[in-house]
Amino acid sequence: MSEGKNTLKKPNLIVIFGPPGSGKSTQSVLLEEKMGYKYISWGRITRNIMNGNFGSDDDKRIVLNDLEHNFFYPEKYIKNKVLENFKEELQLGNTNFVIDGFPKRLQEAKECIEIIKELKLIECFTTKI
What we know:
- The longest helix has 15 residues, at 77-91.
- Helix 4 packs parallel to helix 5.
- This protein has helices spanning 24-35, 42-50, 57-69, 77-91, 106-118; strands at residues 12-16, 38-41, 96-100.
- The protein contains five helices and three strands.
- It has one domain: 3-Layer(aba) Sandwich (Rossmann fold), CATH 3.40.50.300.
- The chain is 48% helix and 11% strand.
- By secondary structure, the protein is mainly α.
């Protein structure tokens, strides 16, 4: 390793959008399996919450309530859970991410931008939504 070079890996982020059934999850899993990206999806997070692998009992109650009654999640809930998942993965040394299933709504898109900025997943991000 040469002196003076930055040895920190820059994060890489891919966000996949598309309608249901368009292959978002399929492509995300391929990126995870073939290229080593960490796949972060709202569907995967909710399954992990329900299986007891992520979050708390309160999280399980909130997700179950949404699934049974089709309620909207509390404000910023999805953002906070996605952010928590990102932070866990960054602590494990993961720097390449692919996101699928978040954001779905305009407010979630704004929250996704907040996550990207907070975690410095890209060097420069300017947008108006």
